[in-house]
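Here is a complete protein record:
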Amino acid sequence: MKKYFFKNKLLFTGNIILTLAESILSVMLAFILANFVDAAVEYDMALLYKTCIIFSLYLISVLIVWYSLRIVRASYIRQMLFDLKNDIFSRVINKEIDQFQKGNSASYISTLNNDITILEQDYFKNILTMVALIFSFIIATVAIFKLNFFIAVGVFVISIFLVAIPYFFREKISRAKGSNLSGGERQRISIARALIKGTPILVSDEPTSSLDKKTALSIENSILSIGGLTALVITHNTSEEVPKKYDKIIFVEDGEIVKVGAFDEIFTPASVVLSIVG
């Protein structure tokens, strides 16, 4: 993948220059604010007037750089994706028909999902964002040492301390992939991991079977209250509290679908009595 970043040198250089400019401008704001404070404290109208002019020019520069960077970055990413797709499909297009017939044709084919935004969002954009953050960090570090050496040292000492705290006081859950967790704890972690993904469809098989009734009811109510979520739940729970909230229930018995409908349509008083007798 690295070759695609350096394939178009003009767009690459433009992206680096504009990213660097954006980082410098973000740090410059601290110096402008410092001038405003100095002008207010010292009642220096000349400094205030000068700072206002600089601030106006700063806003114009930020707008120009921000807009230019978005255009150049979008063109840069689009060109990288074009080159990537072109390389992938050219391997198939440039093959002769008789070459496919000599062996396994699958060995000549590279697969690329149509959802190309996955590559754009999770790879190219993330790397460019990381580069921008590195530039900002370096420039901000130089700026803070220029503003006040002692404050800069204090900030770095506190930062190192905050990073070190989790390292010294962290607690491992287990070395055996959560084997010391109870069934309920593992189940809650599984539910949380599923919900964090934010997918529009949630499929679960007995999601709260290892939880007490109160906790299970609370979790299921929370899941059903999520807007835009379609929940497909497999359960043996026929209590009235939660199943009544589902739009449709498919009742399966001995591997066959017996009834389809709302809770009141499936679990009539007569059917409950028959299930208890059976």
Summary: The first helix runs from residue 2 to 7. Residues 99 and 254 are 53 Å apart (CA to CA).
